[in-house]
Amino acid sequence: ILGLLCFSIFWPKISWLIRYPLAFTMGTYCGMAVPRHFQARIFQQLQGTMITSLSLSNMIMVIGVIATLTYFFFSLEHKGVLGKVAKLGIWYIMLAFGAAFGYTVMARISLFIGRLQFLLHDWLGLIH
Q: Which among 54, 75, 103, 127 is placed 20 to 30 Å from 118, CA to CA?
């Protein structure tokens, strides 16, 4: 029946019937894709975050993930407990960005030292 309704596009008086097979097809494929998307992207990420043993570092990471996600939850005003958790999320974000920047600076300095060592030792022979 849905296949036959696709041909209704050729008759202007009943061309509006094309909406039903299109809606059914879109709804079916979205309904099949959403669970797979959740499994592949969201549940796997959560499992990777929480699957390790209950160590202190894992608990700190889980608290950080929850606090950071709470900071990006804009549907409720950040007051009370939600505000305190969101503020903790801001601290986690700042620490993460600071660590990433520190690693970048450390890598650049390491590259610089390697180039200096090449110039002064291998190329010019000034240090041994």
A: 103
Which amino acid, one-letter code, is at 10? F
Sequence-ordered list of residues with C-beta below 8 angstroms from that of 70, at least 6 positions apart, any chain: 82, 85, 86, 89
**Which tokens hold the place of 37?**
């998307």
pLDDT at 85: 95
Produce one character per residue of 33-47: b if its CB has 16 or more CB atoms within 10 Å, e if not: eeeeeeeeeeeeeee
Given a cut of 80, whether residue 96 has pLDDT beyond it is yes
Rounded distance between C-alpha atoms, residue 8 and residue 10, angstroms: 5
Question: Cα separation of 128 and 80, whole Å?
Answer: 63
Q: What is the torsional sign of CA 54, 58, 64, 65? A: negative
pLDDT at 104: 96
Task: Name the residue type at position 43.
Answer: F
What is the spatial distance between Cα 101 and Cα 111, in angstroms, rounded to a whole number? 15
